[in-house]
């Protein structure tokens, strides 16, 4: 039986990915910071008799990652797939967010991935087998205010994933980057809430998310793509996911940097009109 470690499985994309792999016959180690809060997940595992083991792991902690992965390897011997999904976001203007906000996001979204990856790489390299799937975001290719800290962490993860792919391909280890668009998760819903700011972009971006979530894309779509990558023999590096992912990336690529800055620095009325004409979304506050 093939095996997989998935981080950040308490909800959203991580939870759906754990279920998808287990239903496909994988032995799943579903890690999360607080397993005691996973009662509904545990009941679902029991009801479906799924081969899922929930394990405590805080990707922000060297000790926690080592202890968890050492325990899994002691039980299972090896791991075929690592899905680095755990992530957090802090949104707001650069001026108004604290330094702690920036550090917290980078600690989880970037350094957390490195901790888990480095813990498994020696064994994957020895076995000449493995697949590492890193969940970034289209925000890892398009920097949007007020997602400065989140975009920075995902840009960093995109870069280190591309470097890693070059290093490990000779050892038959595949690396893939999954880039979801706007997905119906708790994170996306939090962004859709308008919070007070001296900068108008926070309100406007909340409106864009709220409008997009009226026709939501479910996290199961991302989970299915992650499973598809693991099951394939493809060496394709980047995988945009969701109906808006490729259109957003193509739209950004169609503009110069200066045009893009101007697009987001426009007046409220210009911005809302542009979103309506470009994406067919009414981002105006209700």
User: How much β-strand is present in the residues?
Assistant: 5-15%
- At CATH level 3, the topology is Rossmann fold
Radius of gyration: 19 Å
User: Could you give the order of strands across the largest sheet?
Assistant: 3-2-1-4-5-6-7
Query: How many domain regions?
Result: 1
Number of helices: 11
Q: Any idea what the shape is?
A: globular
**Structural class category:** alpha/beta
Helix content bin: 40-55%
Secondary structure: number of strands: 7
Could you say what the CATH architecture is? Answer: 3-Layer(aba) Sandwich
Q: Main sheet, how many strands, which sense, barrel?
A: 7 strands, parallel
Detail the topology: elements first, then pairings:
Layout: E1 3-6, H1 12-23, E2 27-32, H2 39-48, E3 52-56, H3 62-76, E4 81-84, H4 99-127, E5 130-135, H5 148-168, E6 173-180, H6 186-191, H7 200-212, H8 219-231, E7 238-241, H9 245-253, H10 257-264, H11 268-279
Parallel strand pairs: 1-2, 1-4, 2-3, 4-5, 5-6, 6-7
């Amino acid at each position: 039986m093939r095996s997989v470690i998935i981080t950040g499985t308490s909800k959203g994309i991580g939870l759906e990915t754990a279920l998808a792999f287990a239903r496909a016959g994988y032995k799943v180690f579903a890690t999360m910071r607080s397993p005691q809060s996973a009662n509904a997940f545990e009941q679902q595992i029991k009801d479906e008799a799924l081969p899922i083991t929930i394990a405590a792991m805080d990707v922000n902690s060297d000790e926690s990652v080592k202890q968890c992965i050492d325990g899994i390897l002691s039980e299972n011997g090896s791991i075929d797939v690592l899905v680095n999904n755990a992530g957090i976001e802090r949104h707001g203007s650069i001026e108004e967010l604290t330094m702690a906000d920036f550090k917290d996001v980078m600690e989880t979204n970037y350094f957390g991935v490195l901790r888990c990856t480095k813990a498994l790489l020696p064994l994957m390299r020895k076995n000449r087998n493995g697949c590492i799937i890193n969940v970034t975001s289209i925000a890892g290719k398009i920097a949007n205010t007020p997602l400065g800290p989140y975009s920075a962490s995902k840009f960093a993860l995109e870069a280190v994933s591309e470097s890693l792919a070059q290093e490990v391909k000779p050892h038959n280890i595949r690396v893939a980057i999954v880039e979801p668009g706007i997905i119906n998760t708790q994170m996306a819903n939090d962004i859709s809430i308008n919070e007070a700011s001296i900068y108008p972009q926070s309100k406007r971006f909340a409106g864009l998310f709220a409008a997009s979530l009226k026709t939501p894309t479910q996290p199961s779509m991302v989970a299915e793509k992650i499973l598809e990558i693991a099951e394939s023999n493809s060496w394709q590096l980047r995988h945009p996911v969701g109906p808006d992912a490729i259109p957003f990336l193509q739209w950004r690529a169609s503009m110069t940097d200066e045009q893009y800055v101007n697009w987001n620095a426009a007046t409220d009325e210009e911005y809302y009109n542009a979103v309506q004409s470009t994406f067919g979304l009414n981002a105006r506050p209700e």
